[in-house]
Write a structure and sequence with these properties.
mainly beta
Length: 137
């Protein structure tokens, strides 16, 4: 699976993006990681290879933080993910915890398909997170 290689200092929400502000991290987080809300109400890196709960992405982190610190997440809108994108390609939650991959690279060892965004240029994407993951048979 070809996960995106993210330059954390380049992760940015675009003008008018829908951002969830000041949520509490449940573990160490870096910019650009898809996060889910756990049973304790804390945000931690999501995975398409885990449980259905772990694949329900709440947003993509916009800042780095340690457990117990605030994290902002983009839910929708223009986004600079800090990685080189293929224009027109849809990206999804990876089976590798906290990472993103092209949707075409989803493999059968992933348990869920969770679309996150579509590249509109090689550096910018339109985020539209689908809250409910699709289980693979």
């Amino acid at each position: 699976m070809a996960n995106l290689s993210i330059t954390v200092g380049s992760v940015l929400a675009g003008s008018g993006a829908r951002v969830l502000r000041r949520r509490t991290a449940g573990s160490g987080i870096t910019q650009g990681q898809p996060l889910y809300k756990n049973a304790s109400g804390l945000y931690i890196p999501a995975t398409a290879g885990g449980t259905s709960v772990e694949s329900v992405v709440a947003g993509i982190s916009l800042n780095a933080c340690s457990a117990g610190q605030p994290v902002d997440l983009i839910r929708a809108g223009l986004f600079t993910p800090g990685a080189t994108l293929a224009t027109g390609v849809q990206y999804a939650l990876s089976q590798t915890t906290g990472l993103i991959c092209p949707i075409a690279d989803i493999v059968t060892s992933s348990k869920f398909v969770v679309p996150l965004f579509q590249a509109i240029t090689t550096t910018t994407a339109q985020v539209n997170i689908i809250a409910n993951a699709v289980a693979l048979a």
